[in-house]
Model the fold of this input.
Amino acid sequence: MRTVAVVGTGLIGTSAALALTGRGITVYLSDADPDAARTAASLGAGTTEEPTEPVDLAIIAVPPALVGKVLADCQRHGLARCYTDVASVKSGPRTEVTTLGCDTEHYIGGHPMAGREQSGPLAARADLFEGRPWVLTPTPDTDTETLNAALELVALCGAMPVVMDAAAHDRAVALVSHTPQLLSSLVAARLEHADETAVRLAGQGVRDVTRIAASDPRMWLDILSANAGVVADILEELAADLGTTVAALRAMETGDEAVRRAGSADIEAVIRRGNHGQARIPGKHGAPPTRYETVAVAIGDQPGELSRLFREAARAGVNIEDVAIDHSTGQRVGLVQLQVEPSAVRRLVEALGERGWDVRD
Ligand SMILES: NC(=O)C1=CN([C@@H]2O[C@H](COP(=O)(O)OP(=O)(O)OC[C@H]3O[C@@H](n4cnc5c(N)ncnc54)[C@H](O)[C@@H]3O)[C@@H](O)[C@H]2O)C=CC1
Ligand SMILES: O=C(O)C(=O)Cc1ccc(O)cc1
Done:
């Protein structure tokens, strides 16, 4: 693949474009908003000039409801030999593409399973898709050249291709992406008018659960309106779980010992079912779920401390698998939680201790 057109240079389009230009591909950028395309170009994502001949692949990176229309326009102008999109929902766009009479042989649905809370080209990252699943939804009429072009795109972005049927994809993302987004928003919404003293107590738990509540409402409205029924089905099941959980908590408050015990058992079951579900979430790069150990280190809240700590870990030959930082309220220290392989814990703790770091148990 030598030439690619990116139509829609927001977060996802520009991230793909950056990954591709980084691999020496010529990328042509366009957007209904010329400023977005110019911004993407200024970041080194490609050129805003028009291609003089059909490109090898066009990536349609616009909201789900516009995929069909934009694809039809691009195909009418002969922009590319093959086409894909990146929309978070696959069935609706597929129906639209067929209804509008698009050339479906040279189009394959796609969805990179990576995003950020911000949108627009300025939030783009060349490594956004690295190690992440990238769903492709070929149909019997998808031709081989188009499938191969999409597979090459996925490889060039460092992602892992997952071939799925569009409806199965929509059910899956309703479970692992769309429902978690709504629940995160609902939990965070409880904080909107909460007492300041309560909010100040926020620790890592509520931060983890509400991280994605900072997402762009416009983008989520686009996504949820394209998958509303499937998400509503899952929320209905969750509502039943919530009902059971409320009943169990009420039971735990009664004076009747047997009822209290039954309530406790139900609550324990909820937490255990959660443990089992959480343990099924794949590790980095799609590896089997991995249990890392946490090494907590207190650092001063000042420039250069984190990089000094990371260099120390590298010197000890320890790979940091993940990292989180707890900031203590009102203090100029942070607690860095380094996630490492269990076998590396002792080496890291000893190395950091020897160099005077404040390692916490
Ligand atoms: N943001 C995320 O976390 C993820 C989003 N997606 C999907 O990627 C697609 C793009 O989303 P983002 O990049 O986040 O949105 P964004 O809002 O950052 O970018 C969308 C861009 O499309 C442009 N656009 C709108 N109509 C257009 C048209 N008719 N022709 C050309 N350009 C047009 C807009 O001006 C905007 O620059 C959506 O389908 C979304 O569902 C997929 C994975 C993750
Ligand atoms: O935070 C995450 O991991 C996400 O789930 C982000 C995300 C948002 C929308 C998508 O279509 C795909 C991924």
